[in-house]
Each structure stands twice: as C-alpha cells, then as structure tokens.
Amino acid sequence: MSCGFFFAVQGASSWLTPRVFPERYRKLSRRSQVDWGLHMTGWVHALVVTPLCLYLIRHPSPALVLDPIFGHAPLEERIFAISGGYFLYDLIVSAVLLPTHGVPFLIHASSCCFIFFKAFTPFLNGMAANFLVVHKLGMTGSTLQLVNGVCLLATFFGARICYGGYMTTRLWSLLDDPRITPSLRWGFRTANLALCGLNVSWFRLMVLSIKKRFDVGAAQSEIEDDDKDGKAE
User: Which residues, including other chains, have CB under 8 Å from residue 54's CB and lie 6 or more apart?
Assistant: First the structure.
C-alpha cells in the first residue's frame, strides 16, 4: 500500500506541476522533469516520517530500550512500513532508470530496502528510526543560492556524515551480539558501508556542484564588467 501511495505521489506531481508552473516545466529536459517527480516523492516521504522518527528517538518504546536488537514495537513498525514501501518504490524506479541515473542510486535503494525490511523480523527496530533520520533530512551565483547551498551542505554533513557516523559506531557495536548470525551481521555491515560510502561521495559532489555554480557566476560577472568597461570607452 505504501509503495503504491508513493507511485501515486509521483504521478500526481507529473500531472500537477505542468499546470502550476507551465512555462518553467516545459523548459526542463525530460530527465529534469522525471527528477522533479522523484524529488517531490522524496519530500513527501521526508515530511511524513522525519517528525515521527525524531519523536521516537527522544521517546523510544520501552521494548526497544530493553532490547534494541530483537525488541519490537507497533508504532516503530508502522513507520518502517511506510518507509519500506518508499524504498521499494525507490528500488523499482532506480532499476528502471539505471541507464540514465547510474548504479549508485540502485545500491542506495537496495541497501535501504535490506535495512528497513529486516526491521520487521523484528531486528534492530530501535536503530532503524535513527537511520531513517540520517537518510532524510536560473539563480546562478546569487546570494539566495549561496544561503540555500550552505544550509543544504550543513544539513547533509550534520545528519548523514556526523550523526550517521555516530550511529554507525553504535550499529557495529550492537552487531557484535552473539545472538546475531554472521550472515545477518555482515549483511547489515555491508549495507551500512555502502550507504556511508555513498554519503561521502555525494557530499563531495554537492560541494563541487555548488563551487562550480559560483565559479560560473563569477565568470559571468567578469564578462559583464568587461562589457561595461568596453561601452564606457
């Protein structure tokens, strides 16, 4: 049901956006139009689950406090059902768009599916909420774009790199529990390492992308200044 809901969100975005922003949407390439629908779906997922997960991190269910590995709680499991459906949607879309969007997105979706669907066994219910927060959370060179870029980088670095690194150390420590089979232990560790590697790689690309935009903006400003000087002469 959750997976179908997110496909419906993408379809609604593809129908609604051209009617709300007809001029700007028509100017986008086909890939950019597809990406817009994917981003809208991701935003809806984040807006739904992030506040709930932040609450559960501060107020975890007693069963998960007693046993964060094999304990389970209905409220957390409902959230995992929502996110499991979203990542299943993401996995299907990533597989379909593999020729244009590449392998990293497929690895990301596969790793997230593994982590969140295994939380239903129950297994690591308490940790999955933390990883969900880690996961979620024409103006080139403008001040507004600079502020937006700094906020984006700070949020990504704080949530995925710093908090994600801290949760990784907790996860690896919990996975040393003798009740966990080696295959499950290394399955989680492999998925976790893949996600951590992607986070570092994507953060680097984000920094380079923002730097490139402002280099273009600076170059454009120099051209405009030269034109003004030429006209003045």
Answer: 133
The pair of structure tokens assigned to 169 is: 């150390």
Is residue 132 within 8 Å of residue 83, measured between CB atoms? yes
Cα 58-62-67 angle, rounded to 5 deg: 105
Provide the token pair at 2.
């959750």
210 confidence band (pLDDT: 50, 70, 90): confident
Q: How far apart are CA 206 and CA 210, in angstroms?
A: 6
The tens digit of pLDDT for each residue in 150-175 reads: 777 888 888 888 888 888 898 899 88
Query: With bands split at pLDDT 50, 70 and 90, how would you rate the model's confidence at 75?
Result: confident
pLDDT at 73: 82
C-alpha 141/C-alpha 216 separation (Å) is 7
Structure tokens at 83: 């996110």
CA 176 to chain centre: 27
Nearest to 131 by CA among 165, 104, 105: 165
Q: Identify the pLDDT of residue 227.
A: 47
CB of 159 closer than 8 Å to CB of 137:
yes
Tokens standing for residue 196: 């951590």
Nearest to 114 by CA among 103, 128, 98, 101: 128
* Residue 209, CA atoms < 13 Å, CB-side half-sphere: 12
Residues 6+ apart with CB under 8 A from 196: 164, 165, 168
